[in-house]
Design brief:
Shape: globular
CATH topology: Na+/H+ antiporter like fold
Strand order of the largest sheet: 1-2
CATH class: Mainly Alpha
Number of domains: 1
Order of helices and strands: HHHHHHEHHHHHHHHEHH
Strand content: under 5%
Helix content: over 70%
Number of strands: 2
Number of helices: 16
Distance between the termini: 50 Å
CATH architecture: Up-down Bundle
Length: 376
């Protein structure tokens, strides 16, 4: 029987591309996690544990496309952090402080809670650490005027607080293939060089081409190479794309402009694909209910504290963002999905994935209530 995966996913992708609300998920991206995370429920309904429309073989056939989507998400974050003026550095520093606070509190809280709350499963210190990394990604509402600095500050922080999670997210993939430190270092260096080489070659091709159609072909080809190389090396596709985005932003010129334009055109369908596949791969378990509740509570509290610290670190940007950073970003789900791909069959990666995905849905519901209570 013919696999129906593409026929099912394609209408969702096309519909999302034509109409999507204007909220940020990372580095100026929209769609918003609020309706976007609903696609996780769509994927769950279509997946092997639902209607089985997206069966295990169908999901396996979509793995290369998911790697490309992860690479594209990394590129878009990398393109958003390339200006190194003092004000931008303060903003990046404040966002890094907020991310580090979230990682530390969520990781520490899960380690303390795993004894009384978790009976069966694998919540090791590494699972708790990576869950904290995934929790650090934020989204913020974008429907504000530039003059409204108090409400603009969460957007400015959310645009770059994905940087630290992406860098630390490499651990989530390397965790699935233990090796000596020198071997890991050489592995990372080789992968970084490959990503930069792909970015340099595609930048040269796009810069020397004036036709937009040809530039789009080269940009898509660069994404395919980045995602394919990362999948082949079992590396984080997010990390590879992030390095390429940093290079393209630093190189500038027509090559950078063409890549940014084409990737922003492709971002919606790729993120839709990522969320649908994430929902399809989700395995629910009542054994995880207590630890997921702990994850949501810890994440909301950590984001509140981290946002306050970010406001103190950059007071001229607008001050305390309140609960404006409590909405989860797609990067956290992407890191967990990348780890699930690299560690196929490992119980620990399945546990991590369930905690992060269901916890993101719960965090979004709680953040809506908190933001409504604040009157934003």
């Amino acid at each position: 029987m013919r696999e129906p995966s593409i026929d099912v996913v394609a209408p969702l992708i096309e519909g999302a591309r034509r109409r999507w609300p204007s909220r940020r998920l990372a580095a100026g991206l929209s769609p918003t996690p609020r309706p976007g995370l609903v696609l996780i429920l769509v994927g769950l309904a279509l997946g092997p544990h639902g209607l089985n429309v997206l069966s295990e073989p169908a999901l396996a056939s979509l793995d290369p496309a998911v790697s490309v989507a992860l690479a594209a998400l990394g590129v878009l974050v990398g393109l958003g952090v390339g200006t190194w003026r003092p004000r931008e550095l303060r903003r990046i520093g404040a966002a890094g402080l907020e991310s580090a606070t979230t990682i530390a509190l969520v990781c520490g809280g899960l380690l303390l809670a795993r004894g009384p709350l978790f009976v069966r499963g694998h919540v090791s210190w590494l699972v708790a650490l990576i869950a904290g990394v995934c929790a650090a990604s934020s989204s913020a509402a974008a429907e504000v005027a530039d003059a409204d600095r108090g409400r603009l500050f969460p957007i400015l922080v959310a645009e770059v607080d994905d940087v630290l999670p992406i860098l630390l997210g490499v651990v989530a993939v390397l965790w699935t293939r233990p090796a000596a430190p020198l071997v890991v270092a050489w592995f990372l260096l080789r992968a970084a060089l490959i990503a930069i080489a792909i970015a340099f070659a595609s930048w040269l091709l796009i810069a020397q081409t004036s036709a937009e159609s040809e530039q789009r072909v080269f940009a898509i080809g660069a994404l395919l190479l980045l995602g394919g190389a990362a999948a082949h090396l079992s590396l984080s596709a997010l990390f590879a794309g992030f390095l390429a985005g940093i290079f393209w932003n630093a190189a500038g010129g027509a090559g950078r402009d063409g890549i940014a334009r084409d990737l922003r055109y492709l971002q919606h369908p790729l993120v839709v694909l990522l969320l649908v596949v994430a929902g399809s791969r989700l395995e629910l378990s009542f054994d995880l209910a207590a630890i997921i509740v702990a994850y949501v509570v810890l994440r909301i509290a950590a984001k509140r504290l981290g946002g306050w610290l970010a406001g103190r670190a950059a007071p001229d940007e607008g001050g305390d963002p309140g609960f404006g950073l409590s909405s989860p970003g797609v990067v956290g789900i992407a890191i967990a999905l990348n780890a699930l791909q690299a560690g196929a069959g490992l119980a620990a990666t399945k546990t991590l994935f369930a905690i992060v995905v269901v916890g993101s849905l719960g965090s979004e519901l709680v953040s809506l209530l908190m933001l409504r209570a604040e009157g934003t």
